[in-house]
Amino acid sequence: MQGAADGLARQLWRIVEPLHAILYYAPEVADEAAKLGYDVESRWPSYFAWRAAPLGAVGAATVSSAFYSFSPRMVADHVPAAWDVAAPDVLLERRLVAVDRALRGLLGDERVASLGEVAALARRAASAANTAGRVLAAANADLPWPDQPHLVLWQAATILREHRGDGHVAAALVSGFDPCELLVSFAAVGAAPESVFASRGWTPDEWDAARERLLSRGWVHPDGTATDTGITARAELEQRTSELAAGPWKALGTEVGRFVQLAGPLAGEIASSGVLPRQSTLGLSSRA
């Protein structure tokens, strides 16, 4: 029974993630970031600002800890400088404006107005999430709920996404993967090419050193591909992540099927719209 719940939690992550991720990729969001004064030649200046804003005007060490797999040096390039461009409370207000524009652009005004039922289900799941020890989920859950259903849906998806992500960090710690090793091990099982993971800011020397550590533990081959032991370790990490993410969905009971029926097509439209990248560090396009 537990295994079925874990599998469902992973399936639901694949629905929730695209709903949340428009914040980082939609052109309307980049436009709002530019209006605030962020450099949008790269997505990273506004990424750190949008995602970390619920934490308040925190420093680089806090963001590095919460985001986990980014190079602390890369984080320090953007935090706390992000708050000099716009204060967190301004960012929180404008990110809802940005998401509103993005969802209307993707789905149309009539469609977003019809999302009341799925938004209510998502809010119930998000409100049931236990945020103890999950700083990003807690920070987003502490925000007031917007009024419009499509924004309720997005905020719920964000809470649920960060709830799973916080659990993934906990699972990584238990499994023995440090931040860079977590990425190296994910590339080793074919989640995405190493070039995709380079976006997290680790130098080639740091990447090679992390690979050597995994090699010494028997988790990768010399060519960087995962050994059977490494594949098992990653599978156990992902299973533990899903176990930790299952609680909010259990709260929906039998209505979780209705959520999948309503939200699945929305996530599919967003995923196939071309707004999101085909490959990312999340491994959504992989069976890994």
- The helix tally amounts to 17
Query: Between the first and last Cα atoms, what is the distance in angstroms?
Result: 22 Å
Q: What's the overall average pLDDT, rounded?
A: 93
Strand-pairing-aware structural class: mainly alpha
Q: What level of helicity do the residues show?
A: 55-70%
What is Rg?
19 Å
Spatial shape: globular
Amount of beta strand = under 5%
User: Domains counted in the coordinates: how many?
Assistant: 1
Largest sheet: none
Describe the structure.
It is built from 17 helices and no strands. It is mostly helical and 288 residues long. It is globular, with a radius of gyration of 19 Å. Helix 1 packs across helix 15 and helix 10 packs antiparallel against helix 11 (149-175). The two termini are 22 Å apart. The protein has one domain (2-25, 92-271).
Task: Please provide a brief summary of the model.
The chain is mostly helical and 288 residues long. The chain has helices at residues 2-25, 27-36, 44-52, 60-67, 72-78, 81-85, 88-107, 109-112, 116-127, 135-141, 149-175, 179-188, 194-197, 204-216, 228-245, 247-250, 256-271.
